[in-house]
Every structure is written in structure tokens, then in C-alpha cells.
């Protein structure tokens, strides 16, 4: 169990930290909503086939089957989670991958506030200090301007990123409140299916232009590699690791990914894409990650 915990945490830390870079690269060929839909549907297919094979091999597919209400709850939780992912990808068309990851580090802040509102779980003084510090850090990051007077994160994109963090926190709580019975991989596949359906409907409603065969054939190889990385590792490995951790260990331990992912994303964005990494970014980042640490490590 200890080895599984370490492996799952490493997957969430390193793989999810690198998905911000992979998303930015894949956006070079795929529209945002299509990208999220392909990631969810590809991941759902991968996990569904593998999870079914594993439980058939172990003869553990029998038991209490999930009813319509449970299916609906899992699909709904997945739809909320990946609605947040869609907002993130929309913002990443213009926002540096590392800076987007820093704003998404506020997910534990939203978890605290949602639990307080829904269950009356009043946070302690350290957690409240972390909430205030996190809000201040995000405001500072969004309000920072470059030498030309332009915001590092445009206000519209900052709003999308904050909405993304809120929806991911909400979906995590929904999935935890009514877990899917049976193998964890199949439960993750159902949530991914919910995300695929939602983003497909949104793409149709917004009349997202689907690239034709010629455009896809001309897409740079690194965009295809980014998409495959998101499906196979970001979704196929990272997402089930995250949902499994939520069910077997303390939320405080799971939440530590929120201040590891931005560090990974900032380093990769700086070294691979040449994204800015001056004090105008590092200052708010330190404030946000320190605030998240207060929230997570207090475990209140």
C-alpha cells in the first residue's frame, strides 16, 4: 500500500505538473473544446477497456451493480470536473502554462470554502490565513503588468482560471460524496465519459470548427505528441491515481499536488517554451503556494 501511495502521488505530482506544457503544445493544432473532448473520450476508452480486462481477469466484476442514480452522479461529477478543465484550456490559449498552473493551485482554497458553505465545517485560523493569502496572491498575479503595461494574465483569462479551479474543487467533492462502486478504473472512466459528453455538446453548441483531414495531416508532430501525452499519461495514469488517492488517504495529503504541480509547470514552461520567470511571477507564486501549504498541512 505504501508503494502504491508513493507511486500515485508521484504520478499526480509529475505527470499533472507537465500536462500544462502538453496542453499548450497541443493547442497548436486542436481547438480547446475539441482537445478536452478528445482527452476525455480517449481516456475513458483506455481506462474502460483496461479496467474491464483487469476485473474480468481477477473475477471481481460481480457484485452490486451501479444503478442509474450512481451512474448519473459519476457522470455529473465528471462533467463538472472537466468543465473546469475546458475553462483552463480556453485560458491557456493566451496564458503561459506555468502561470495557469499557479492559479490552479488555489483548488484547496475552494475546497475549504465549499466545505464551509455546504457542511458548516468552519476553518481554523491558519486555514483562514491561507485563504486570504491565496486570494491576495491571485489578485497580485492577475494585476501584474509587463514592461509594456500589459497584464501578464488578462482579466478575462484570470476569471476563466479561477472558474476552472472552483469547478475542479466542486467536481472533486461531488465524486467523493458518491463514489462509483466496483473497480476504481471503471469509476474514473465513467467520470471521463461525463466530461467527454459535456465538452462535445459545448463544442456543438458553440459551433467549434473541427480541423479537416488536411489540417490534421499538416499539424506539427509535437501537437500530436502533446495530445497523446494528455490521453495516455495525463488522463490514463494521472486521473485514476487522483481519484484513487481521494478514496484511500487524507485530503490533506492528496492536496499537496496543488503546490508541486505549479513548480513543475513553471520549470518546464521556462526551459522548454521560454516562458517568463521573473520576480513578477515568482513573488505571487510564492505567496499562493505558501498559502496553499497553510491550508493543506493544517488538515482542518
Question: What do these coordinates show?
Answer:
The structure is a single chain. This protein is mainly alpha-helical and 300 residues long. It has one domain (2-60, 67-298). The protein has helices at 2-26, 32-57, 68-91, 97-104, 107-119, 125-143, 155-177, 184-205, 213-218, 221-248, 251-254, 261-272, 279-298. Helix 2 packs antiparallel against helix 8 (184-205) and helix 5 (107-119) crosses helix 7 (155-177). The longest helix has 28 residues, at 221-248. The two termini are 25 Å apart. The mean pLDDT is 87.
How many E-type strands?
0
Q: From the helix content, strand content and strand pairing, which structural class follows? A: mainly alpha
Q: State the major sheet.
A: none
Number of domains: 1
Strand content: under 5%
Please tally the helical runs, counting DSSP H or I stretches of 4 or more residues.
13
Q: What's the Cα radius of gyration?
A: 19 Å
Spell the H/E element sequence: HHHHHHHHHHHHH
**Proportion in helices:** over 70%
Q: What ranges have pLDDT less than 50 throughout 5 or more consecutive residues? A: none
* Overall 3D shape: globular
Q: Overall pLDDT, averaged?
A: 87
State the end-to-end distance.
25 Å
Concise summary:
The protein has 300 residues and is an all-alpha fold. The protein is built from 13 helices and no strands.
List keywords for this structure.
13 helices, globular, 300 residues, mainly alpha
Secondary-structure topology with pairs:
Elements: H1 2-26, H2 32-57, H3 68-91, H4 97-104, H5 107-119, H6 125-143, H7 155-177, H8 184-205, H9 213-218, H10 221-248, H11 251-254, H12 261-272, H13 279-298
Amino acid at each position: 500500500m505504501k508503494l502504491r501511495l508513493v507511486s500515485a502521488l508521484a504520478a499526480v505530482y509529475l505527470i499533472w505538473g507537465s500536462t500544462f506544457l502538453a496542453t499548450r503544445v497541443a493547442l497548436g493544432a486542436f481547438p480547446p473544446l475539441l482537445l478536452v473532448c478528445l482527452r476525455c473520450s480517449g481516456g475513458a476508452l483506455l481506462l474502460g477497456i483496461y479496467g474491464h480486462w483487469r476485473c474480468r481477469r481477477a473475477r471481481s466484476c460481480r457484485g452490486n451493480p451501479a444503478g442509474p442514480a450512481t451512474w448519473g452522479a459519476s457522470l455529473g461529477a465528471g462533467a463538472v470536473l472537466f468543465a473546469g478543465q475546458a475553462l483552463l484550456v480556453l485560458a491557456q490559449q493566451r496564458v503561459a502554462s506555468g502561470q495557469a498552473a499557479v492559479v490552479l493551485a488555489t483548488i484547496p482554497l475552494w475546497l475549504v470554502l465549499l466545505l464551509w458553505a455546504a457542511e458548516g465545517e468552519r476553518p481554523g485560523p491558519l486555514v483562514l490565513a491561507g485563504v486570504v493569502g491565496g486570494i491576495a496572491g491571485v489578485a497580485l498575479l492577475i494585476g501584474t503588468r509587463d514592461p509594456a503595461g500589459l497584464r501578464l494574465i488578462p482579466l478575462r483569462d484570470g476569471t476563466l482560471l479561477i472558474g476552472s479551479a472552483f469547478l475542479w474543487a466542486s467536481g472533486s467533492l461531488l465524486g467523493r460524496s458518491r463514489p462509483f462502486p466496483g473497480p476504481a478504473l471503471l469509476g474514473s472512466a465513467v467520470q471521463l465519459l461525463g466530461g467527454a459528453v459535456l465538452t462535445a455538446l459545448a463544442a456543438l453548441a458553440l459551433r467549434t470548427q473541427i480541423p479537416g483531414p488536411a489540417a490534421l495531416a499538416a499539424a506539427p508532430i509535437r501537437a500530436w505528441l502533446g495530445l497523446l501525452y494528455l490521453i495516455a499519461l495525463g488522463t490514463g495514469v494521472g486521473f485514476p491515481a487522483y481519484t484513487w488517492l481521494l478514496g484511500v488517504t487524507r485530503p490533506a495529503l492528496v492536496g499537496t499536488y496543488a503546490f508541486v504541480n505549479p513548480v513543475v509547470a513553471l520549470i518546464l514552461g521556462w526551459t522548454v517554451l521560454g516562458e517568463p520567470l521573473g520576480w513578477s511571477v515568482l513573488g505571487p507564486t510564492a505567496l499562493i503556494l505558501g498559502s496553499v501549504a497553510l491550508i493543506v498541512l493544517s488538515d482542518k
